[in-house]
């Protein structure tokens, strides 16, 4: 089968933003204007579960009016195929943005025209920077009271450190938002109504435009009066991308055509010289088609992204794979979901062609996978396909061993593609089945949820036997349990959310341990000498074998490592996992008959327990970056409260008429914050938080935590 859409006519893009900026609303319009659906559903109409938008189809999404998982749809615009992923903005579901950006070629970053750059706009922007994803900005909600285009552009510059380049200027704002000036064509696009089928009029940009359109607010008039200044900025910036056009302009005064400007805008966007900024109101159906034009004109096709990096076993780059059908097959699995169709594994094909029935290699795990059914997903609908080619995003049904982040490739040409980075889950709860008899079914469902979401972790408390689920935040954990009810028919209960503390050491020590036992005939023997030393924050655990002359027989070294790995999960202070340390096996001894894998594992475990205690262990706690947005009147109270929570205020930023207080606060002090904040500010302040880093817990607080854990364990095991 030949390729139906040339690679250069594909746009794989994501829509990313802070929560509520209007991503899903924009996606609905895109599907409507491209003819993929005939009605538009609004977010606030889905709460009764009778309807849903195309991409927010989960019950949890409908009820809460927020996006929880990213959903892919596709549409055609000007003969280009746009594969689009609508992502969530809530910080608890960052993993969804993370994995989408990993496989997308470009992104539309949506901003709320009133709030401008918000915490998740910033986090998602940085993620896009990390993955090198070119983007365009869309200042939405220009119809809202307080909307201000230039303020938003300024925030993009200052807070994101970007170089925003307006390619449009809004005409009017708030209830008098009428459309925009297209600075490339120098035409005014004006809508007479909010109706979804209203067509814009194209007017000349004349000096009396503001009068003609009854624009009366001074700042809106000023923007139109400055239109030539913005046009000059656009032309000058564009010409930096095209020497020939620059020359013609400087020597002959030739003003570049619209086509030349668009080519320059495309080039500059792709090499991240600047980011084009558009404006509109998706809800009032103004500016969405122009966003689609910009996606086609400025965002990359798979062919613009020349190649994908390949890595060695340690994740270091070693080569690249060209984006082409003619290269050997390679793809990255970026998402696994459990669906009525079974387990669906989403892949992005980077090179080559994959056909139904093929046998490929999962090079991350060294296992073969047989390709059965292949589907193209349109939100929750699956459309069967026979093959997938470089640049395509499709889903594979019922793979055996492939997990998020794995590479699938041609078995004769093995490569491993650059992996994804996952966020740190810092809140934990104990979970159990509501109905005792369903414990096993519950456990299976939980396993499936965790497999689908790398920002969830499952642990078993070794002393109490409790199942501990770790996640990004309270909402994340609640939604997970609720989805188990709707998707697997099992109900669970969860305990109070807890902070996921960690333990580490601060001193280097050497520990000798001899495990010796004589029971009846056969005995047990193993001796290990292990050096324990601290590593930098976020290094995890490292094991090195430096024994010489077979003092510890080679076949038992893995048992030593295993013993340490198991034991480090149960820290010596308060049973939290021990992190950021290195263990070096330097010496040991064995007995011909009495030594075996088990005795060395036991010795390693004991060496850990005894050694770590001498290595000045400390407790680490997750610290959050908190942003509280409050009216100025309550600023003093908000800051005072943050200080009482062991927080440190780092910055105060203007946010429209409000002030955003940026602070670093330990997670343990943030429980119940929303209630107190609302009380303190008569419900007028709001906040968001995300994980920042782990930090040592102050001594007095640590003592309390350790005592509490001991008490809780005693109660549970009594
Ligand atoms: N006034 C106005 N409201 C809008 C506009 N676009 C979206 N909204 C409203 O903003 C709210 C959030 O819109 P969504 O589309 O769900 O936002 P989102 O970015 O998808 O949110 P998450 O997926 O939860 O991060 C809804 O109530 C929308 O009706 C707009 O252009 N103007
Ligand atoms: Mg959404």
Please describe what this structure looks like.
By secondary structure, the chain is α+β, with helices and mostly antiparallel strands. 29% of the residues lie in helices and 31% in strands. It is built from 18 helices and 37 strands. Strands 18-17-23-14-15-22-19-20 form an 8-stranded antiparallel beta sheet. It has a 7-stranded mixed beta sheet with strand order 2-3-1-4-5-11-6, sandwiched between helices. Helix 12 (439-452) crosses helix 13 and helix 14 (557-568) crosses helix 15. The longest helix is centred in the C-terminal third of the chain and has 19 residues, at 699-717. It is globular, with a radius of gyration of 29 Å. 46% of the residues are buried. Magnesium ion binds at residues 23-24, 56, 67, 86.
